[in-house]
Each structure stands twice: as structure tokens, then as C-alpha cells.
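Side project, low priority. Logging it here so it doesn't get lost.
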Amino acid sequence: MNQLYKVIDLFSGCGGSAVGFAQAGFDIKVALDIDVHASETFKLNFPNAHVIKGDISNVSSKDLLNAAGVSNGKKIIIIACPPCQGFSTARRKSQCLTDPRNRLIYEFLRIVEEIKPMAFVMENVPGLASGAGKSIFLEVLQRLKEIGYYTVHGIADSADYGVPQKRKRLVLLGTNNKKIRLAFPTKTNRNPDILDSTLPPWNSVKNAIGELQVIKAGEKSKIDHLHVASNLADINLKRIANTPHDGGSRSSWPDDLILECHKKTNGYKDVYGRMKWNSPSPTITGGCVMISKGRYGHPEQDRAISLREAARLQTFPDIYRFSGNVGEIASQIGNAVPCLLAKRIAESLSNSLSLQELNKIENFFSNKNYTTIPNTFQINAA
């Protein structure tokens, strides 16, 4: 049934959301992103989709509808992840309010107003709904209500949906069909410290990457071109070697290895740390292949995680292909919506659509008189 609905993916990146929606049975028709390498990656994996490389503010709704092969939004699902750095809680409020990327959420709103899709899903950082971006988010919600959309939203932690990564995201779903009862995706996994639940525990780093080939810093696997680890300077090799396995941090280093800037602060304790085998990873970002950017050290091997490991922690299939160099691919992976989280959201939307279709059938029969005969039925007008 989902193939009846055509997906337009705004701010599509390398295709994390599209993978999840495709896995849930939706038809990916159009992708739009300004990043050249991310767009090339999308096209590699969705050759039948119309990929538009460019600034969304220069793209009309008519362009998107034409690319999707439709004249209106009645069977369109829009998925969107406007760049979220402008709403990050790591930034000062004054920076958030002046960041030019914040305008992009209004471009999403413009497209929804003009196309009037049957439904949409928007994903962003939690700070959009509760931090410096709250006033903007409330403004967007009000406008969506004014143009006839019913919405549900909440904060989803990817780990609660089977992703081997802790990553909290704001998820907003909307529809202009009042007969559709949208629901926030149901959790599939639980924090292992919560015992009063029948759900399986969170997925782990070990489940995702534990069996991959051992490689050194600066080395590339001969059997998997994406399993490549960034090179490390001698001082950083000493630092990672002095970081205890399975979740260790820089607090164990001798004084001569500690950076001067770290001696002056108690913050940023994840920097140069290792992941834990039996826990989800921290949030994967564009800097995930560098130990200086967060807790991106391999649990045992003296290196940062590889591109393959980052892709698996983002639940990309191993067959997924990426365009670009190591840094460009790391950025694409880190900026993506985890594929499995997108799939759970898509399944929740699919269930709402299926219930609506069932209600149509039930209402049809409730208004007809019919008699059944073997393997068929005959309908008589009332």
C-alpha cells in the first residue's frame, strides 16, 4: 500500500531518512540537498529518484511536483531534516537566533503550504522545541494548524528504537486528513537499567561492529574499502594507548599527555574517550572518525572508529555506497538520520495510513447491503 505514496525528501543529505522510508515500503521519488557529495551518494543508492542539487530557496513547489510526476500533494509524503546546527544547545541563544540556517525551517514550511502533502515528517534537534528555537517551533506549529494540519511531536532517542547509538531528536508528524490518527512511534527497546519492561535492551556497539576486521590507525581494510581509520599523530597514538579499553577516558592519562586546555576545564570529558562494547555509542557526528571530536575511540583498538563502523552505528546497510573522501563521507554519515529510526517513524506513519484505509472499507460496507457467496461477494445498493 505504501507504494501509493510518493516521498519528497527535503534536506535529504546522503539518504538516511530515505533508506528507512524505503525499507518501510514507501516510494522515494525526489531528493533535494545543497551538498554535492551527499546528493551524489543519494543518487548512487536511489538511481530511480530525481535528485536536485541546490539551495531549497531557489526551488519551487512546482519543480518538486513535476519531479515526482504528480500535479498535487494528495499522495505525497514530505520528509525533511532542516540543518539543525543553528538550534544546537551547545550554542549561545544569541547565536541561535542570528544563525542564517534557522531560516531553512521556513523553507520547509513554505513547501508544505504550497504542495499541501497528505502527510509530512520533520526531524531536528531537541533544542528546536525546548531551547532557543522554541519560539520559532511554536510559530511553525501555529502556521501548520492554520493551514489545516494535525500534528504530533516528541523527543525520540534512537537507542529506544533499536539503533546502537544514543541520539535524541525532535520528531514532528503532520497530516491534513482529519480521518488519519497519527501516533508517535512506539519504542522497541529499553534502557537495560529499567527492568519493569518486556522490551529487549538497547542495541550495543558490540552487536554493530564487534566482528569487523582489526585495523590500525591510518589503515584501510583490503576487503572493505569503507573500513578505513584516520591516521593519528604520535602524541595521539600515545593518548589512545593510555586510554583504558571499553569506555575509558583521558582522565587516566599521565600529566605529560594532557592538553593545556583540558587542564583548565572539567568539561568535554568525552573527548579522546573510547566507546563501550555493551552500550550504545554516543551521538555520531561529522567528526566521528577523529578521537579529538568526542568519544569516538574504538573500544579496544588504538584508533578512532572507521567509516564502516560509523555507518553501522547509524544503521546504514553494508551495501550502501558513499561518494567523497574520508572527511566528506564522515560528514554525510554523521549528519544523517539513523536509518532504523527513520524506518520506525515510517512504520508508525504507515500504520496510521493503513488504519485510515481500513476505516474507508468498513465505512463502505456499513453503508451497503451485501450477501456473500463462496469466494466472492455481491453488493446491492441500499
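Brief comment: The CA atoms of residues 73 and 117 lie 4 Å apart.
Revisit when time allows.
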